[in-house]
Amino acid sequence: MSKQKTLLLVGGGTGGHAGPILAVYKKMAQDKNCKIVVVGVGTPEEKEFFNSIPNYTKICAGKFHRQFTIRNIGEIVKFVIGYFQSLFLLLKFKPQVIFSKGGFVSLPLTLAARTLKISYFLHESDIEMGKVNRIMAKSAEKVFVTYPAKYYRGIDSKKIVWSGLLLREGYAEKPEKNVKTFGFSNGDPVIFLTGGSQGALNLSKVFLQIASGLLDGFNIIHQAGKHSIEIADKFAKDLPEEKSKKYYFTDLLGDKMMLSAIGSADLIISRAGSTIVELAIASKLMILVPWRYSAQDHQLKNAEFFKANNAADVITEDQLTPEVLRNHINDLFQDREKREKIAQSSGKLFPKDGVSIVCDALKERLDK
User: Fold this and answer.
1) 293: enclosing H helix or E strand
2) Distance between CA 5 and CA 94 in Å, rounded?
């Protein structure tokens, strides 16, 4: 019997980082000769993904702010603690290879891996590489990327592997339409507004100013996130009964409901983080409103890539007003050919087998 190999997966904090880690875990766990340790920081969003994993452990990790504040002193302390916790974990589990999803959660552990000369792979979700991944890419054995390799300058091209996004279970196939899940029975087209787990507060505020009028001809699914749930609840309570039946809102959709929302949507309005790749895989018509404060302005760059490939309509935050948003929605629904071209283009942009690409490379490394 061959000796058991150990793989360590690090990432989390938000669902956008934890989901891909879980997808890799599930595929690698099929190999009974591979022991897998998952490391995160223990946020509520992260725990939803990882709590059923036997070897799930937590470290401290500092989330540094771009402008120096008193809070950064506390984050530095967390980072230092996390670095020594990481050294202890690596010496305890002795992984043959580490897979990192990037983000602040990954920094102390990948730095500890570099200190101990343990091989690690990275994955980047956005077109502009995040700060942690840029720091760690130089010493990484492989760097998997979501967008075409040419966009990642300053990294050894021999390390880069175009994998696409690491899609969660069910997201690699086009989801089925299932409007009854949301209580809709009128046959009107569906608009799905998603702000992610945090919620896009400004986007929700602007959208809700025109939503009552939209309900005359559309059904609406609104994933409000924790920051927008209160205004969504107030909006719903003020609606007349007939319109309230056409407005479904929640703070966060689980995977099953999320897939139903994507499948049911005739138009999706979203920020421009990594989720838009999942929407593109489903060949969806999208209006993207990139968040102006995203790190390295990566959301705007993601959105510009989609627009350049005729795969989404884009409204920048500076342009976003109720009137502008309503005009974009009306223009799209008055031009069927344009809607179909955008949806078809988005479905052709990315590989769909990113998890397999990453896992095949991990297996090859573990077998060395």
Assistant:
1) none
2) 9
Residue 173 lies in a domain: no
Confirm if 171 and 19 have CB atoms less than 8 A apart: no
Query: Dihedral, CA atoms, 195, 62, 60, 77, nearest 10 degrees?
Result: -150
* The length of the chain, given as a count of residues: 368
- How confident is the model over 194-215, as pLDDT tens digits? 987 665 899 999 999 999 999 9
Using an 8 Å Cβ cutoff, are 108 and 63 in contact? no
Q: What is residue 221's three-state secondary structure?
A: strand
Distance CA 298, CA 313 (A): 17
- Domain shared by 154 and 22, yes or no: yes
Distances, alpha carbon 224 to alpha carbons 22, 37, 141, 191, 254, in Å: 24, 33, 39, 13, 13
pLDDT in tens, 211-224: 999 999 999 999 99
CATH number at residue 201: 3.40.50.2000
pLDDT at residue number 4: 86
The parent domain of residue 284 ranges over 179-346
Do residues 269 and 193 lie in contact, with contact meaning Cβ atoms separated by under 8 Å?
yes
